[in-house]
Design goal:
heterodimer, A: mainly alpha, MetI-like fold, B: Rossmann fold, OB fold (Dihydrolipoamide Acetyltransferase, E2P), six-stranded mixed sheet, 21 strands
């Protein structure tokens, strides 16, 4: 098999070039060049704009280690990423299971549409609609008070739970989609085989279905964890003062403080940390998959 | 070990009656084949016995205990699936161990049992492999080992040999039969392959459109089919249709065919006769109705198919094509277009009520 593939790729590379070139050209221009520029900035004292003086420095990286606020925020962001990923698993996996194994035909299509609907709406609109729902006197508060016989106050706005809710809402479709794909590939006869051997539904879930859908869970987790750690929009709008995270600090450097070199350096540190985490997790995850 | 009783079981899916009042007694320790074309309900029946699906009405008992509302995991059955359904993420040994380990048996006991089961299917050394590293026949054996290691009361096989090529299938038929005898387990085997049903089973049940058409030992069904469908589905048969005479039937052209086996049909009623192609003698000579009351028909050979050890002649007579199978003993072969005389004994002729 591997041998055949090797022959195939050797023979196939030259005719494949015209097909590969546009994508790689685009990636080079759109990602590699700006990223290189950012890497360059991160070692500068100031931006070389309007004839400002600048020189090379490691100071931007040193700032991360000398001021504990950055590492504190990075840890808070990693925890946020972990929590959001976990909630996405808890909410998204059962939905994916029902989509892949319970629903058939039309109802599956309808539910599927509902799951991917958030993808089609503007992110900012989504977050602001959450703001309307979560604030005191907002939709959730009013609705609950209309139903419940006693008075309660729901004001989740500008809190950590609000940030979690907004982020989970934005990212749960990734988990549903990746898990749906792996769950759908599991033959129903495997589930029946497990039960014919005396395993309860729960045992079949833990011993057969979850291990076989691990690749989807891992792919979903990676797709969610990485952007959530660097997220800034949801924390800023829904979190308010409590919504200060590593991502919002980076954003501040670029749009408020205009300290691009520091912002760039903080970004690369985040990239390095995320890569290290993924590299450390890889052997464990590969064994699980 | 235990027998299985299915009594008056019906199951519908919407307007479609998949099983219609089916009753079968599966004897303890026997090898029973459920035979039928696709859509006949044989797999539905197997799934009722397994417990993947529950009947709308009727009773199912395993070892005398009613199970028709017991979920599959509590029925203590072993099942081999058409596509084997091995867990791709587990080794061969872990696949076989699955049923014992979900019961929470001690590890050491599991290992011993797994090794014994793998030895029984002659895969003793392959416990560490993953399913995708095995051939089709080996996967089949693993599926069998996994199904029997838990010592189920009954073994259910859903077209287990369907995915194998012909030579391997014959090997596996023999192997399956050997293992079944060795552990003496009640086995119910679903197949659409009549040859498989004939060679492997002690009893056969033929299903059609959700109904049991006929059941009994293979020899009995083959020699005394009770319907045209049973006669033509299990083996080949020449069918004559006419009016019953009391000792056979009279065809529309006045020819009488004598039959001494099968149903008793009152004279004058519609009836048919079935004759197996290998029971008919074919000759070129004048009507050699030597053996007293033998049935004799004249016709001509329209086609000959040579199949090595035998030849099949297609003989035309009065708008009907008859099939005759002759062993190749080295005697003269008949040419196409040649006039011939067919003769056979009333003992080989089965009378079937219309």
């Amino acid at each position: 098999m591997a041998h055949q593939l090797a022959i195939g790729s050797r023979r196939g590379l030259r005719p494949a070039l015209p097909l590969l070139l546009p994508a790689y050209l685009w990636l080079t221009v759109a990602i590699f060049l700006p990223l290189s520029a950012m890497a360059f900035f991160s070692f500068m004292t100031d931006l070389p704009l309007a004839g400002k003086e600048w020189s090379f420095t490691l100071g931007n990286y040193a700032a991360f280690f000398s001021q504990s606020v950055y590492s504190t925020l990075l840890i808070a962001s990693l925890r946020l990423g972990l929590e959001v990923t976990l909630w996405c698993v808890v909410i998204g996996y059962p939905a994916a299971y029902v989509l892949a194994k319970v629903l058939k035909g039309r109802s599956r299509e309808a539910i599927f549409l509902l799951v991917i609907l958030p993808f089609w709406s503007n992110g900012l609109v989504r977050i602001f609609s959450w703001a309307m729902v979560l604030r005191e006197g907002g939709i959730l508060d009013t609705a609950l008070n209309a139903v419940l016989p006693f008075k309660i106050n729901i004001d989740l706005m500008y809190s950590y739970p609000a940030v979690i809710i907004g982020l989970v809402h934005s990212y749960v479709p990734y988990m549903v989609l990746t898990c749906y794909l792996t769950l759908q590939a599991i033959d129903d006869s495997l589930i029946e085989a497990g039960r014919s051997l005396g395993a309860s539904r729960r045992q079949v879930l833990w011993r057969v279905i979850i291990p076989l859908s691990m690749p989807g869970l891992i792919a979903g987790a990676a797709l969610i964890f990485v952007p959530v750690v660097g997220s800034f929009m949801e924390p800023r709008i829904l979190g308010g003062r409590t919504g200060t995270f590593y991502g919002t600090v980076i954003e501040d450097q670029f749009v408020a403080v205009f300290n691009w070199p520091l912002g760039a350096a903080l970004s690369f540190i985040l990239l390095a940390v995320v890569l290290i985490i993924l590299a450390l997790a890889a052997p464990v995850l590969r064994r699980a998959a | 070990m235990a027998g299985v009783q299915v009594a008056n079981v019906s199951r519908s899916f919407g307007a479609h009656k998949a099983l219609d009042n089916v009753s079968i007694d599966f004897p303890d320790g026997g090898f029973y084949a459920l035979l039928g074309p696709s859509g006949s309900g044989k797999t539905t029946l197997l799934r009722q016995i397994a417990g993947f699906d529950f009947p709308d009405s009727g009773r199912i008992a395993i070892g005398g205990e009613s199970v028709e509302r017991v979920p599959v995991e509590k029925r203590r059955i072993g099942m081999v699936f058409q596509n084997y359904a091995l867990f791709p993420n587990m080794s061969v040994a872990d696949n076989v161990a699955f049923g014992l380990s979900v019961r929470g048996e001690p590890k050491a006991a599991i290992a011993t049992e797994v090794q014994r089961a793998l030895d029984l299917v002659q895969l003793g050394k392959l416990g560490g492999r993953k399913p995708h590293q095995l051939s089709g026949g080996q996967r089949q054996r693993v599926a069998l080992a996994r199904a029997i290691v838990t010592k189920p009361r009954v073994l259910l096989l859903d077209e287990p040999l369907g995915a194998l090529d012909k030579a391997l299938r014959v090997d596996m038929q023999i192997e399956l039969k050997r293992i079944q005898r060795e552990i003496g387990i009640t086995t119910i085997f679903v197949t659409h392959d009549q040859e498989e049903a004939l060679t492997m089973s002690d009893r056969i049940g033929i299903l059609r459109d959700g109904r049991l058409v006929q059941e009994g030992p293979p020899e009995e069904i083959y020699d005394r089919p009770q319907s045209e469908f049973a006669a033509t589905f299990l083996g080949d048969a020449n069918i004559f249709r006419g009016d019953a005479t009391g000792s056979g039937i009279k065809l529309s052209d006045g020819t009488t065919i004598a039959a001494s086996t099968g149903a008793s049909v009152p004279a004058g009623a519609k009836a048919s006769c079935a004759v197996r192609p290998e029971r008919i003698r074919i000759s070129t000579g004048a009507a050699t109705a030597g053996a007293g009351n033998a049935n004799v028909l004249a016709g001509w050979v329209s086609k000959r198919i040579f199949a090595g050890n035998n030849s099949t002649y297609f003989v035309e007579r009065d708008g009907q094509t008859l099939k005759v199978i002759v062993q190749n003993t080295g005697a003269e072969r008949l040419a196409e277009g040649q006039p011939v005389v067919l003769s056979w004994s009333p003992d080989s002729t089965v009378l079937i009520a219309a």
